[in-house]
Each structure stands twice: as C-alpha cells, then as structure tokens.
Specification:
This protein has a five-stranded antiparallel sheet, with no helix packed on it. Strands 1-2-5 form a three-stranded antiparallel sheet, with no helix packed on it. By secondary structure, the chain is mainly β. It contains five helices and 30 strands. β13 and β14 form a beta hairpin. The protein has four domains: 130 residues, Immunoglobulin-like, CATH 2.60.40; 35 residues, no CATH class; 92 residues, no CATH class; 186 residues, no CATH class. The relative contact order is 0.08.
C-alpha cells in the first residue's frame, strides 16, 4: 500500500450546501488517487482520514474525521463532503477559518490496517459561508500597506465594486446611465425586499442624481441606518461623530455638503437658521428683538425686567453683573435671576411668553443641530453663540440667530458672587433645567442650584411657570 498509492490533482470545491436556516457545516472535496506507477485506481474501495491543522503543515489538529469504503470512479476520483465523516476529534463549527488552515490526507485500502499520509496542503480558498459563520470581524494583516485592501468585492468583470482599506471604504457604481436598474448605490429598508415588492430606497446614488427620502417607519432602534464616521473614538463610551448618517427619518451631514450639479428638493429645506420676528415688550418697557427658529419664536436678548408680568417686583431674586447699574451692560447681557424668580406663578416673562420647558430646549437644539446634535454638540453650540459678547476668542457663527451672550452666573453669599462673565452662558428653564453654553461651543441641557442666578430667555406661547 505504501508504495502503490498517492494523490495528485488535489482539488477543493466550495459548494454552498443548502442548509435551511443555518450556515452549512461541510464543503465538497475531490481528489484523484493513482497507483505508484501513475495509473489511476479505478473502481477501488479505500478509507480516507482527513485532518485539518491550523497555522502550519505541522500545526495543531483542530478537526479530524474518517470516511470508510469510499469508492473511486473510473477515473480514480473520490468525492467527499468534509464535515460529513465520522468525527475523530474537534468540532467542525469551531474551526478557526480566519487563520491559515492546512488539510492533511491519509489513505488506505479497506483491506489494510495502516493509513499512509499522502500529503498536506494549505486551504487557500475558504468557503465564504463557513468563514462568515465563524468570525464576527475581519482584521487586516499587521504589515499591510495603506493601499492593501482588507476586504474586496469584485463583479464578474473583475472590477472592484466595494473595498475596505486601512483608512476608509470605497464604493464604485456603474457610471453609465444607460445600464440596468441595479446600478448605483442604495440604502433601503429591511422590509419589502421581495422581488415583487416596491423597494423605497432611503438613499440612492446613481450617475444622474443622488436621492434622499424621509419618514419611512422611524420606530426602530438607534443602530439602524447607514453611517460614515471617523476611525478614532470607536469605544462604546466615546461620542461617535458620524460625518454622514442615513436613517429612516433624516440624512445627517456634519461636514460641508458640496454639489457640482443642481440640488432639487420636493420638500422644505431647513438650514437651522432663524428669521427675524416681531419685537416684544416687557412690563418695564424694555423692548426685545426676537427670532423665529423652526416653529418657535425666541427672544434673541437676555431678559432684563425687574417686575413680573403682573407688576410685582422680582427683588431680591434678581441681580446684574457685579451689581452694575451700567445701562449698556444690562442691555447687552440682561439680568440674572434665581430659580425662585423663574418659578413664581406671576410669570417672569412678558404676557404670551414663558420660561422654556425641556421640550422647548429639545425643539431648539434639534432644529439648529439636527436629531443627532449631541454627537457633535460644538457645531450646534457655535450656531447658538453671538459673535460678540464673549471675552474669549471663539468660532461662533450665530447661524441660528439665537445670539447667545455670556452673562455668566451668580452665587448667593453675604452678597452675590459672580463668575463666568464673558466665558459662559446659562439660561433657566422649567423643572430646574439649565441650557449651558461655553466659549468653545459646548452646549448641554443640565440642572442648576436653585439659589444660583442665571440668565433667562423667553419663548413665545402660553405656558405655566417652571416648577
């Protein structure tokens, strides 16, 4: 036996077996068995032992099995399903296909007792379904260059349609508008994927246009959609700054949008910018400029009244920076009010206006910064900041027209203690909420000490005072 048999023409054929509902746990294997003189062993019965080793030809055996009484055909060919034999060791589903796997073949005639190792070779082409079923990620080789792809998908012509590189992803679409309907790149919903169903793509890119549709079942989880983000800050605790994100209800861009052709919209395009609205006057006769931001109308100046809307004095629950009586300081930065002033049922805002509630803050921030404003809140903050009235140089653009001004805050003692003037802004809201804005553009809705004094911005509409 030792001198009579050897295998040539070793061939692995990745045939994806149809195993309903799970990854196939076997693949097809064929080999030609010949005698030592080179003639085929036609119509013979042999036993086969298969050993799969990892890392090298002499590496640890991760799986082994035997096949008994396998018949060769007239050409000496045997056909097996590796994974379908009698298992000697290992679990087929646990084979680490992401590592280098080598196959060792041992053969003997069924009438003999000793196997002969015919040879071993590396499996260079792993059946995709097996590989995908055993790994949760694809990792690049440590010595790969920037131009070496980690993962590539090619079409039948050998052209790359999708490639993952060390620093990014590229998608190539058919650039000839005359081609078929399947050309282009699309992000669609998980539902309605049947051939006869109408597929409504949320994002679709083809040679003649880029189309974005909205409002298609927005009840799913936050991880739905399609996003392009930076390589840094990928830990679970880090803020994920997506440059581009497509969800069922919106497409979010955190960078400049450039178009070399026309932009057409069948709906309303909102820039997050406010538009001037009619001024409002408080009970003291102070007149405030206002701005419409989305569906809301806001004062674009800090409140500076000394009386509630029904005439009662606010003192001692209000103050001004360093107790100044300078008209310009009060005009530009307004007065500071403790939470006790904000919660008084007499209403610190003019009639028909109210202290913002949490939904008011949310509407403002979403309109100015988009539904994911928290992921890059600085962009939103800079859009809320006035270009003036900050002592620290900043990149404020006041795109919203909100005109936030850094009046700081005051803390009670034997007399008011002031801090943050020119470097941060704080506005009281209902239920102890405070909209906080710093000179770098950082913005957050938090809470504040009720005894401290902050600025107040009123929003139009009837509303009960904060509680």
């Amino acid at each position: 036996m030792k001198k009579k048999l050897f295998i040539i023409g070793l061939l692995l054929v990745a045939m994806l077996l149809k195993v309903q509902g799970q990854v196939p746990q076997k693949f097809s294997y064929q080999a030609v068995i010949r005698n030592a003189d080179g003639t085929v062993m036609a119509s013979q019965s042999v036993d086969i032992k298969i050993s799969l080793r990892k890392t090298s030809l002499s590496g640890d055996v991760v799986y082994s099995e035997t096949f008994s009484a396998v018949s060769t055909n007239a050409q000496g060919v045997i056909s097996l399903y590796i994974g379908g034999g009698t298992v000697l060791s290992g679990v087929f589903a646990s084979i680490p296909w992401s590592e280098n796997i080598f196959i060792q073949v041992d053969v003997k005639k069924t009438t003999e007792s000793t196997y002969l190792t015919i040879g071993a070779t590396q499996i260079l082409s792993v059946p995709y379904a097996l590989y995908a079923g055993s790994v949760s990620q694809v990792t690049s080789q440590p010595n790969a260059s920037a131009d070496d792809p980690i993962f590539v998908v090619k079409n039948k012509d050998g052209k790359i349609v999708f490639a993952v590189y060390q620093t990014g992803v590229k998608i190539y679409v058919e650039d000839n508008p005359a081609k078929g309907a399947k050309g282009g790149f699309a992000v669609g919903g998980l539902s309605n994927q049947a051939k006869g169903a109408f597929a409504r793509d949320i994002l679709f890119v083809n040679p003649d246009s880029t189309r974005i549709n909205f409002n298609d079942n927005i009840t799913k989880g936050a991880k739905g959609g399609f996003a392009v983000g930076g390589l840094s800050n990928q830990s679970k605790s880090a803020t994920n700054n997506d440059f581009f994100k497509v969800t069922q209800d919106s497409s979010y861009f955190s960078t400049t949008v450039f178009a070399s052709a026309n932009i057409t919209s069948t709906g309303t395009i909102s820039s997050g910018a406010g538009t001037a609205s009619d001024p409002v006057q408080d009970i003291d006769g102070n007149i405030y400029q206002t701005v419409q931001i989305g569906t809301q109308v806001w004062m674009k100046e800090n409140l500076r009244t000394t009386h509630y809307s029904y005439g009662k004095s606010i003192y001692p629950y209000d103050t001004t920076y360093n107790s100044t009586t300078n008209v310009d300081t009060i005009k530009n930065y307004g007065r500071l009010y403790s939470y006790f002033a904000v919660t008084d049922t007499s209403n610190v805002c003019p009639n028909g206006w109210h202290v913002p509630s949490p939904p008011d803050w949310d509407s403002l921030l979403v309109f100015v910064g988009g539904p994911y404003w928290k992921r890059d809140s600085i962009i939103t903050g800079l859009r809320l900041m006035d270009k003036n009235y900050w002592s620290v140089p900043n990149k404020a653009n006041n795109a919203s027209g909100f005109s936030g001004r850094a009046a700081g805050q005051a803390m009670p003692s034997t007399q008011w203690i002031f801090s943050g003037f020119g470097t941060n802004a704080n506005w009281w809201g209902r239920f102890g909420t405070v909209l906080k804005l710093d000179s770098g553009g950082g913005v957050v809705v938090g809470s504040g000490n009720p005894s401290n004094a902050f600025s107040v911005r009123c929003v139009k509409g009837k509303g009960m005072p904060a509680k």
